[in-house]
Amino acid sequence: MAYALVQNGVKKLPDGPYIPLDPGNADYQQYLEWVAEGNTALPADGPSRAQLNASINTWRSQMEAAGFPALGHWWDSDDMARERLTLTVLAGQGSPVGYWKDVENNAVASGDAAMIATLYGAMVEYGAAIFARAEQMKAEVAALADAQLADYQIGWPT
After folding, report:
1. Angle, to 10 degrees, between the axis of helix 49-65 and the axis of helix 113-143?
2. Is 70 exceeded by the pLDDT of residue 7?
3. What is the pLDDT of residues 74-113, one digit of tens each?
4. What's the Cα-to-Cα distance from 24 to each of 20, 31, 45, rounded to whole Å?
5. Which conformational region is residue 73 in: left (phi greater than 0), alpha (psi within -120 to 50 degrees), or beta?
6. Is 98 exposed, middle or buried (0-12, 13-18, 19+ CB in 10 A)?
7. CA triplet 95, 85, 59: central angle to 5 degrees?
8. Distance of CA 135 to the CA centre of its chain
């Protein structure tokens, strides 16, 4: 008989049930007796490659919605902001009010077609950088040994 630590509990190996950390649970008491006999549970399982890839996809979506830098400001890039910027670029006339607002709600002039095109280009470029980093992380995860998966850090390199 052996046990492995899992999130908020233990599991009897090889295919046993999840056992909550509950002193009133008979299976948990059996586990505690096993530990008292000098046995040690296996470490908790780390994330799987599929879990890490799902977390990378979540990171990518969060980063794409968190804004982008351009013209010395940080600009909104949630779905509505991307749609507004795209439609304004397609119109080819710039902002009808003569400015565009950054994430801090500052009105940034001139808002002309050239400025809007610059913002759109910066948004696309930053989105491409986010996508490229996500793909790089997925390749890194694929190359890791199973024992290294738990230590993998998702995000921009430091």
Report:
1. 170
2. no
3. 999 999 999 999 999 999 999 999 999 999 999 999 999 9
4. 10, 12, 25
5. beta
6. exposed
7. 150
8. 13
Q: Once rounded to an integer, what is the mean pLDDT over residues 48-76?
A: 92
Token code pair at residue 7: 């999130």
Task: Name the one residue in this structure whose structure tokens are 């600009």.
Answer: 75
What's the whole-model pTM score? 0.71
Q: Which two tokens stand for residue 109?
A: 């002039």
Encoding tokens for residue 52?
Answer: 């890490």
Beta carbons within 10 angstroms of residue 21's beta carbon: 12
**Contact indicator for 102, 108 with CB cutoff of 8 Å:** yes
CB atoms within 10 A of CB 59: 17
Cα dist from 137 to 28, 144, 156, whole Å: 38, 11, 9
| Residue 143, Cβ density class (10 Å: 0-12 exposed, 13-18 middle, ≥19 buried) | exposed
* CA nearest to 111, candidates 103, 101, 121, 123: 101
Position with higher pLDDT, 129 vs 31: 129
